[in-house]
Amino acid sequence: MSVKDGDGTTSQDGKAYELQIYPRLSLETASCCILRVTKEATAASVIRDAAETLGLDTRKLYVLAEVKECGGEEWVLESTDLPVHRVLLWPRKAQEQHSQKEGFYFLLQERNHDGSIRYVHLPTVGNEQESKRLVARGFLPPQQEDLEDLCNLPVLNEDSILDNLRIRFQKKKIYTYAGSILIAINPFKFLPIYNPKYVKMYENHQLGKLEPHIFAIADVTYYAMLRKHINQCIVISGESGSGKTQSTNFLIHCLTALSQKGYASGVERTILGAGPVLEAFGNAKTANNNNSSRFGKFIQVNYLESGVVRGAVVEKYLLEKSRLVSREKNERNYHVFYYLLVGASEEERREFRLLQPEEYFYLKQENFMIEDADDLRHDFERLQQAMEMVGFLPATKRQIFSVLSAILYLGNVTYSQKSSGREEGLDVGPPEVLSTLSDLLKVKEEPLVEALTKRKTVTVNDKLILPYSHSEAITARDSMAKSLYSALFDWIVLRINHALLNKKDMEESVSCLSIGVLDIFGFEDFETNSFEQFCINYANEQLQYYFNQHIFKLEQEEYQAEGITWHNIDYTDNVGCIHLISKKPTGLLYLLDEESNFPHATDKTLLAKFKQQHQQNHYFVPTPVMEPAFVILHFAGKVKYQIKDFREKNTDHMRPDIVALLRSSDRAYVRQLIGMDPGAMFRWGIIRASIRALAAFNEAGRRWAAKTAGVVRPNSRVPLGELQRSNVPIERMYRHAPMLDFSFDHSEERPLEAFEDIFASCESKKDMHAQIINSIKDLQLDGEDPRKLLQSWGRLRFPRHVLQKNKNPKTRQLIPKNLLDTRSLKYVVGLHDRTTKSLLHLHKKKRPPSISAQFQTSLSKLLETLGKAEPFFIRCLRSNCLRRCK
Ligand SMILES: Nc1ncnc2c1ncn2[C@@H]1O[C@H](COP(=O)(O)OP(=O)(O)OP(=O)(O)O)[C@@H](O)[C@H]1O
Q1: Is 665's C-beta closer than 6 angstroms to any atom of ligand 1?
Q2: Which residues does 772 contact at the CB level (< 8 Å), separation at least 6?
Q3: Is 4 helix (H, G, I), strand (E, B) or coil?
Q4: Residue 242 alpha carbon to ligand 1 centre in Å
Q5: Staple partner for 187: which of 23, 823, 824, 885, CB 3.0–4.6 Å?
Q6: Helices 335-343 and 373-389: angle between axes, nearest 10 degrees
Q7: Are 769 and 849 found together in one domain?
Q8: Judging by DSSP bridges, how do beta strands 232-237 and 292-293 pair with one another?
Q9: The Myosin motor domain covers which part of the protein (predicted)?
Q10: How many distinct structural domains can be found in the chain?
Q11: Which helix (H) or strand (E) holds 310?
């Protein structure tokens, strides 16, 4: 796709876009047709134009499918979907060159009258099966050098297993079974085995009948769920860069495709948008992977009993917060910072007060070089498009970017010892950084400086204010940045879940079936391991235990119960290690919590406690007395953990004085981030959007009136102030909501003609009012009746001619429907807010739960969900670079 300005068809944004459409039909046609369309062109109009251009029989039915070869994805567009919007999510190169070889394109396919798609050229499996049958009957010699299932190896040892995997991998067979477990070796290159033909080929097939494939696992879980009415889960494990996230994407795609028979539903579209948003905020370039997920996730796809997707939920685990303030050389901070800094327009740069990337302390610690500026610019556009797909209004996007900018500025806060002799404490600066910070976060400078330099402690009788030492102040500053970012990430996950929610989920009576996919960080053993690795490896111990239970223990018990002669297989039972870490009351995590709460404790006393309590434990390996570290014998090997900062990291919540500071912000979004009332901002966001739309309606009316009277007024916009003056209830609303930031939203500026279009969609003034009432009826306006507000809006001028002439019954939704309901938002908050609350110190108890306790809670919740489901396992392996698929 390419963008052309000026000539030809133009969209609201003044651009015409080129689409290349490849026919995949039973009859021979031209290899491709090129259309020039606007951003608003629907799939239906594109199909019509393509069929005409290609000279096809227009009585036949066709569908348009978006193909993303690298993800194995093929999404059939609904007639109202907008193809150009999809293209805007593609990588830059694919957008610019838009040929099939870039792996992103549109297909035109034929559709049957029952709605199913007519697939042509399905791969044939007949011959292969025939030859297998001949081999089985002894007519052909067995010619297999490699086996699809490791369980069939005549000799089962490490060498034979690795040989088999290697031979298969060299033949580009990256998948192998070990019983029902799928082993996937990352080929680091695209293999053409993921398009919908393969989804179809594996549909409703018994595992093992066809070549091993990830779609086979998706298919088995889907049909097992429907047949047995039991939830299913797929646990994906493997080291960083082994392909877990890619596998998750293939699975989610297949699981939704199976259910929709080729059509993308609203949920899938939201999932589609959720991916790039989560990726921008939760992924970063690391030494092992240019796009490494720095958080664990569990995506649960919910189904109706009929097998149709009805919603989805994303749960996240342990975002790596430390990356925000420091990381290894050649690694990067979260993608979104670079997207913003390189991709923002001049206007955005001014608004968010952006500097050059190398001017930020939080970004310049690594060997800083941005060679991929064009990609980053494109990724920023893609991110914005994806944010829109999950329902972020332009104003919300701007609030998010302001917070990101504030986080970066925090890193530039510096300290020096107070110069004036007698006064103790620190000077904080530089002044321009502090004033920008105060402006971006909308907090007063004085309390900001206080929070950055002094600790406030409240005791029973007294309030103590103590100045930080230099290193304590740096920790406090970084802690503020980390907490803000992780609150932002939690908020984004929450809003994605809100967009993915199906209202039926709120009704208990609706019976629920689901398939969950767990993509969680693998076992870690670095040169220096700390608290983060300790938590991650503990999660892996728990998952290994779950794996053992299902693969060995339960299976063997079943054999015994059925009286089958069976020699129990020895497996490494890791329950001892789990007890060492988490058994009450002396497990390492409990000792850590104890020492984290004890005011005089240090890392040293913590280590002494560990040693004293567990000296005799087989899983607690002795270390030299002086070494500030301890070693644990994990199922995957010994790992040495440095005790330094364990206590501090375990209690790294948002500090109460920082919470108090942010609560005083004049920016509703910042207050919302720290958990005041997630609903409030959301409601006001919608009202604000409605008011803006109405202001513009009004102006369009004026313009029309002026035009018909032969006068064209140059000033095309009513200042909101004018609106305010003329409408008493609106004025009252301003008073009721002093925190609202009603400054005009420039990024939302659209030509007024666009609003005439909206007028055109309403049959009458009554109709327009009905739409707006409908849009805001769920909102609680602090006792204000929305109808009263509308009465005043009724005084706005409407262009009579448009209202009279237009009889088009199709109405247009001003604000996405699924985002209009605060009840559902509250429901999602209830589901996911536990960790946010803890993080932000909002618990009723005096002390919020420690980070490890929160992690343990979310892990137990996960294990409980997994425990109720039938599991499948995918083990991802990272191929080494010498033997990668050529
Ligand atoms: N099946 C596959 N086909 C083609 N390329 C793949 C496949 N699996 C993985 N890759 C490539 O390998 C890269 C790393 O994979 P991925 O990000 O999924 O790893 P990961 O295990 O999730 O890593 P991390 O734990 O760091 O997030 C991907 O960016 C992709 O380019």
Answers
A1: no
A2: 690, 694, 790, 793, 814
A3: strand
A4: 6
A5: 885
A6: 100
A7: no
A8: unpaired
A9: 145-886
A10: 3
A11: strand 309-317
